[in-house]
Amino acid sequence: MPSALENVQWPKTPEVATEIKNVLAEFYRLADLKDPDAGIPMSEHVFTHDALIVMPVITFNGKEEIAGARKHVWDTVTFRRHTVKAAHIGDLAGRDILLTGTVETHPRDGNVTIQEFASRAVFDEDKDGKLRIKTYRVWGGKFVSP
């Protein structure tokens, strides 16, 4: 499956660090991976130990909750694919990033949907000194035809 970030229009300045791009690519890869245990590597390699994820209907706070966040995602869905179209920077350090794109979802009932989304990822150094997502918030937008 192609990377969710392969066609992103990145801003020219400030330049987004390759490490941040790699973390975001891994986040979306794991988010779309059909594995109920994908939250474990997400909690270890994508988010800080005290990270906060805020979604339209649920919030996950800290490493333990994030590790279990993917447990039941695939109970009602057979396929998901995020496609990020654009990135915008909210600070001079390039660590506050707004992403826009779409997510294609195939529920078990067969009603395929494509929904626009916007998300904000704020990066910080974790206790190991690596850049990780400290806060991730996502908003769902309008549905577009598949």
Describe this structure in words.
The chain has 146 residues and is of the alpha+beta class. It has one domain (18-144): Nuclear Transport Factor 2, Chain: A, CATH 3.10.450.50. Helices cover 19% and strands 43% of the residues. The chain contains three helices and six strands. The protein has helices spanning 18-32, 39-45, 62-67, and strands at 47-54, 59-61, 77-89, 96-107, 113-125, 131-144. It has a six-stranded mixed sheet. A hairpin with a 5-residue loop joins strand 4 (96-107) and strand 5 (113-125). Helix 1 (18-32) runs antiparallel to helix 2. The two termini are 18 Å apart.
Tags for this entry?
single chain, 146 residues, alpha+beta, Nuclear Transport Factor 2, Chain: A, 3 helices
Topology:
Elements: H1 18-32, H2 39-45, E1 47-54, E2 59-61, H3 62-67, E3 77-89, E4 96-107, E5 113-125, E6 131-144
Parallel strand pairs: 1-6
Antiparallel strand pairs: 1-2, 3-4, 4-5, 5-6
Helix pairs in contact: 1-2
